[in-house]
């Protein structure tokens, strides 16, 4: 479809050190991404710049050096550890005589390899189409003008316009299908809420050990490997916890620094599981030197999908790779667990995690009996909307007597939002 060089297995990696902290990327992470994509890196070229070059991103001298490295190593793809504009990509391809892809394109390729379910494949295709649509004009430079002359005059639509129209049509089709998937997921969440089953969501940087931990807790057989984005399709399992009963545990896609916006948008239905969770289990690879940075990146993505306010339990994973660190639970002044130290690989400390989850959920849910007069119809509507009613009846005065159970966060939100609050209607705790 595109007049582009074919990507191959031998890659030249290009990394630029920028003075600006926000523009910096991690070279070690790029090497992990490339390895996860199944590509062999034959050379790594680095340079420093204060800002990207408008034509080649790296400057004309470095672009010539990259082209020479491609020729010397007979490489067939150049991978940049940064986001390139379509014109920069095209200019680099012209000088290197091989395929050039950026960090976003690399992540999309890994996602395409990992997608297993119908939903996952649709989400990846949507992200890829959105990414490709910005690069169409570069792929069809030889077809931008209509041909003239006898027998060559067409209806007036160039090949480029045809492809744009086809892309728009395909994107609309995928969005309709994903909307159907989102509705099905929403129904599942509503039924779980009605059954008062709390939802836990495993979140964390890619390759932090979420799937390994998920398998330990649920005895599931989810694919887990020491590579980036091993998990792409979300998995839900029911787990029985002491003193809490059944809970739903969700394993989700890992986050990464500068996660492409197209991917965040495409995986909206999947990330909804995180938005609706009662408790987030934030898995952190504590053996990594940059664990604080990865935690910040995860929290940034959580804020982006409106899940930043949900209670978190930090899981300090991979303690088997640290010296003199034992499994334990760290608690705050109120006795609420805030950190659990464990090893998902060996299973050390997993029982402590289950104990910590039970403590967090016990404190995060509240149960009340409310007596609500007929005049408070708005409050009744809100309670029905939250699906938090376990029992209801009417007394002799015509007041509505209702038993509610909801997350403490929802209760506090209602206290602030409603004119009278909820406390004045409480009969018993």
TrEMBL record:
<comment type="similarity">
    <text>Belongs to the TRAFAC class OBG-HflX-like GTPase superfamily. HflX GTPase family.</text>
</comment>
<dbReference type="InterPro" id="IPR030394">
    <property type="entry name" value="G_HFLX_dom"/>
</dbReference>
<dbReference type="InterPro" id="IPR006073">
    <property type="entry name" value="GTP-bd"/>
</dbReference>
<feature type="binding site">
    <location>
        <position position="211"/>
    </location>
    <ligand>
        <name>Mg(2+)</name>
    </ligand>
</feature>
<feature type="binding site">
    <location>
        <begin position="204"/>
        <end position="211"/>
    </location>
    <ligand>
        <name>GTP</name>
    </ligand>
</feature>
<comment type="function">
    <text>GTPase that associates with the 50S ribosomal subunit and may have a role during protein synthesis or ribosome biogenesis.</text>
</comment>
<dbReference type="GO" id="GO:0003924">
    <property type="term" value="F:GTPase activity"/>
</dbReference>
<keyword id="KW-0460">Magnesium</keyword>
<dbReference type="GO" id="GO:0097216">
    <property type="term" value="F:guanosine tetraphosphate binding"/>
</dbReference>
<feature type="binding site">
    <location>
        <position position="231"/>
    </location>
    <ligand>
        <name>Mg(2+)</name>
    </ligand>
</feature>
<feature type="domain" description="Hflx-type G">
    <location>
        <begin position="198"/>
        <end position="365"/>
    </location>
</feature>
<keyword id="KW-0342">GTP-binding</keyword>
<keyword id="KW-0963">Cytoplasm</keyword>
<feature type="binding site">
    <location>
        <begin position="317"/>
        <end position="320"/>
    </location>
    <ligand>
        <name>GTP</name>
    </ligand>
</feature>
<dbReference type="InterPro" id="IPR035647">
    <property type="entry name" value="EFG_III/V"/>
</dbReference>
<dbReference type="Pfam" id="PF01926">
    <property type="entry name" value="MMR_HSR1"/>
</dbReference>
<keyword id="KW-0479">Metal-binding</keyword>
<keyword id="KW-0547">Nucleotide-binding</keyword>
<dbReference type="Pfam" id="PF13167">
    <property type="entry name" value="GTP-bdg_N"/>
</dbReference>
<dbReference type="GO" id="GO:0005525">
    <property type="term" value="F:GTP binding"/>
</dbReference>
<protein>
    <recommendedName>
        <fullName>GTPase HflX</fullName>
    </recommendedName>
</protein>
<dbReference type="InterPro" id="IPR016496">
    <property type="entry name" value="GTPase_HflX"/>
</dbReference>
<dbReference type="GO" id="GO:0046872">
    <property type="term" value="F:metal ion binding"/>
</dbReference>
<dbReference type="GO" id="GO:0043022">
    <property type="term" value="F:ribosome binding"/>
</dbReference>
<dbReference type="InterPro" id="IPR025121">
    <property type="entry name" value="GTPase_HflX_N"/>
</dbReference>
<dbReference type="GO" id="GO:0005737">
    <property type="term" value="C:cytoplasm"/>
</dbReference>
<dbReference type="InterPro" id="IPR045498">
    <property type="entry name" value="HflX_C"/>
</dbReference>
<dbReference type="InterPro" id="IPR042108">
    <property type="entry name" value="GTPase_HflX_N_sf"/>
</dbReference>
<feature type="binding site">
    <location>
        <begin position="229"/>
        <end position="233"/>
    </location>
    <ligand>
        <name>GTP</name>
    </ligand>
</feature>
<dbReference type="InterPro" id="IPR027417">
    <property type="entry name" value="P-loop_NTPase"/>
</dbReference>
<dbReference type="Pfam" id="PF16360">
    <property type="entry name" value="GTP-bdg_M"/>
</dbReference>
<comment type="subunit">
    <text>Monomer. Associates with the 50S ribosomal subunit.</text>
</comment>
<dbReference type="InterPro" id="IPR032305">
    <property type="entry name" value="GTP-bd_M"/>
</dbReference>
<feature type="binding site">
    <location>
        <begin position="251"/>
        <end position="254"/>
    </location>
    <ligand>
        <name>GTP</name>
    </ligand>
</feature>
<feature type="binding site">
    <location>
        <begin position="343"/>
        <end position="345"/>
    </location>
    <ligand>
        <name>GTP</name>
    </ligand>
</feature>
<dbReference type="Pfam" id="PF19275">
    <property type="entry name" value="HflX_C"/>
</dbReference>
């Amino acid at each position: 479809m595109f007049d582009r060089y074919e990507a191959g297995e031998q890659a030249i990696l290009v990394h630029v050190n920028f003075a600006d902290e926000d523009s910096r990327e991690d070279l070690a992470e790029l090497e992990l991404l490339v390895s996860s994509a199944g590509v062999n890196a034959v050379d790594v070229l680095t340079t420093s710049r204060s800002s990207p070059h408008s034509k080649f991103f790296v400057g004309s001298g470095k672009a010539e050096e990259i082209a020479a490295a491609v020729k010397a190593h007979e490489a067939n793809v150049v991978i940049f550890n940064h986001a390139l504009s379509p014109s920069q990509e095209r200019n680099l391809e012209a000088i290197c005589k091989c395929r050039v892809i950026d960090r976003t394109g690399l992540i999309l390729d890994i996602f395409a390899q990992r997608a297993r379910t119908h939903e996952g494949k649709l989400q990846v295709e949507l992200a890829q189409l959105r990414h490709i649509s910005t690069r169409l004009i570069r792929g069809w430079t030889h077809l931008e003008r209509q041909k003239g002359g006898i027998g060559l005059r067409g209806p007036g639509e160039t090949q480029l316009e045809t492809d744009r129209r086809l892309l728009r049509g395909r994107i609309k089709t995928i969005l309709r299908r994903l909307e159907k998937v989102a509705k099905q997921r929403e129904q599942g969440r509503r039924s779980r809420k009605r059954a008062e089953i709390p939802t836990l969501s495993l979140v964390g940087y890619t390759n932090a050990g979420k799937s390994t931990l998920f398998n330990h807790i649920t005895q599931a057989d989810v694919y887990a490997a020491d590579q980036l984005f091993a998990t792409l399709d979300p998995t839900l399992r029911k787990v029985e916890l002491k003193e809490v009963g059944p809970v739903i545990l969700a394993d989700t896609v890992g986050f990464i620094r500068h996660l492409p916006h197209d991917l965040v948008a495409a995986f909206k239905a999947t990330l909804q599981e995180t938005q609706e969770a009662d408790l987030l289990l934030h898995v952190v690879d504590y053996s990594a030197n940059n664990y604080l940075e990865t935690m910040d990146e995860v929290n940034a993505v959580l804020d982006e999908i409106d899940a930043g306010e949900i209670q978190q339990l930090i899981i300090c994973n991979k303690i088997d790779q640290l010296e003199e660190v034992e499994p334990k639970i760290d608690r705050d002044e109120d006795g609420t667990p805030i950190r659990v130290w464990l090893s998902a690989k060996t299973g050390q400390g997993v029982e402590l995690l289950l104990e910590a989850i039970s403590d967090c959920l016990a404190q995060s849910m509240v149960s009340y009996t409310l007596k609500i007069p007929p005049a408070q119809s708005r409050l009744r509507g809100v309670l029905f909307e939250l699906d938090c009613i376990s029992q209801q009846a009417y007394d002799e005065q015509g007041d509505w007597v209702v038993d509610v159970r909801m997350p403490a966060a929802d209760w506090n939100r209602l206290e602030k939002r409603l004119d009278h609050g909820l406390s004045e209607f409480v009969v018993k705790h």
